[in-house]
Amino acid sequence: MKRRSIRIWIMIHKWSSLVPTAFLFMLCVTGLPLIFHDEIDAMMSGDAENALSGPASAEAGLPLDSIMATALAEKPGEVPLFMAFSQDSPLITVTTGPSPAAGGEEMSLLFFDRATGASLGPAPTNWFMDFLLQLHTDMFLGLPGALLLGAMGVLFVVALISGVVLYAPFMARQRFGTLRSGRNERVRRLDQHNLLGVVAFAWMVVIGVTGAINAFADPLTESWRDGEVAAMAAAYEGEPALPPWRYGSLDRAMASAQSALPGRSPQFIGFPGGAWSSGHHYAIFFQGDRPLTQNLLTPALVDAESGALTDTRTMPALNQALMMSKPLHFGDYGGWPLKVVWALLTLATIHVLWSGLMLWWRRKPADTELRIAELYRHPSEVPA
To answer: How many CB atoms lie within 10 A of CB 331?
Structure first.
């Protein structure tokens, strides 16, 4: 590699590292507890979990109509908005609101034990995890914040690739993992920075790429949802929305959907008039049967009055890739062992970011020339 090329790669690496550094520190620090969000949420909702009668699947227990009747009795005057299922417990969540188009601040969330019908009270709030998740995903700036963090993820990947391009010729002249402990502090820090960066390179690229993809997942999912639901309910276009008092049996609707999608588990039901349904349908969303595919949604629209199936659609390939990137980003598909690995690699990334920042902060005018020299000469020939 020529000196001009090396200078260009050094500039690319420097600025693609420096620009996103503050954001990457924030993402690593907030991402650490989010890796264990399931466990933390379970601890926070311990009372509800302990009150459950025992294990059950999303399809076992009392009739859905019975659970919904209990929920509406607790919230008189409100209408159903969502019903969500747990795949490994009898926990079921019912969301109600004053109208089918109620906003998030108007919604009420209730827990139920589907095996017994017992009410477990309102859903517990975990403000700390909610705060971290919002900060991690969009910094409380909505879509602009998410897109900004996505751009920082792209720069992070560029920094990783440029770092490997610069490190590879140097490492070709010595054994992998060599740390020049006899040299000055800057050289030792540089060796540690490079070694940890190379060891965690593949993981950091995956996290950077999936993080950037996730920034675009929500708007693309909303676009798919709105377009797909409208296409599936095209025959009902122009008809007035179905009033809540005309909603039919949830159990009949679920049976119709499951007959068309056997072997899949229901994740949630969107009720008529909401963002996830049409004005006439129960939109029943089914998920995959494996941890890596459980975020892949297949909607089934069922006429809310008659219980007759209207249509089912699978997600387009692009949306499937977007949805699968979420569990990969947080290590949500391999249980505790994988989450621990994800946490350790996150700590390694924090060290790489910190050591890189210190190398830049304590730089000297001759550092660039020294770096170029190290690519051409054996390390022992370069003065300390």
So the answer is: 24
Give 284's pLDDT tier (boundaries 50, 70, 90): very high
Inside any domain, residue 242: yes
In which domain, by residue range, is 173 found? 3-37+130-214+334-381
Q: Is the pLDDT of residue 65 over 90?
A: yes
> Residue 170 burial (CB < 10 Å; 0-12/13-18/19+)?
middle
Whether residues 25 and 135 fall in one domain = yes
Q: For residue 25, what are the CA distances in angstroms to 2, 66, 186, 249, 350?
A: 33, 48, 22, 50, 7
Q: For residue range 326-370, what is the model confidence (pLDDT) as tens digits?
A: 777 887 776 788 889 999 999 999 999 998 898 888 776 655 555
Please determine, for residue 173, whether its predicted confidence score (pLDDT) is greater than 60: yes
Residues 322 and 339 in one domain: no
Q: What percent of the chain has a predicted confidence (pLDDT) above 90?
A: 42
Residue 368 in domain? yes
Report how far residue 337's alpha carbon sits from residue 326's, in angstroms, rounded to the nearest whole number. Answer: 18
Q: With both helix axes pointing from N to C terminus, report the angle between 21-35 and 335-361 in degrees, rounded to the nearest 10.
A: 160
| Domain identity same for 21 and 138 | yes
Quote the number of domains for the chain.
Answer: 2
- Would you list the DSSP string of 37-93? HHHHHHHHTHHHHHT--S---TT-SS-HHHHHHHHHHHSTT-EEEEEEE-SSSSEEE
pLDDT tens-digit readout, 37-49: 878 877 766 555 5
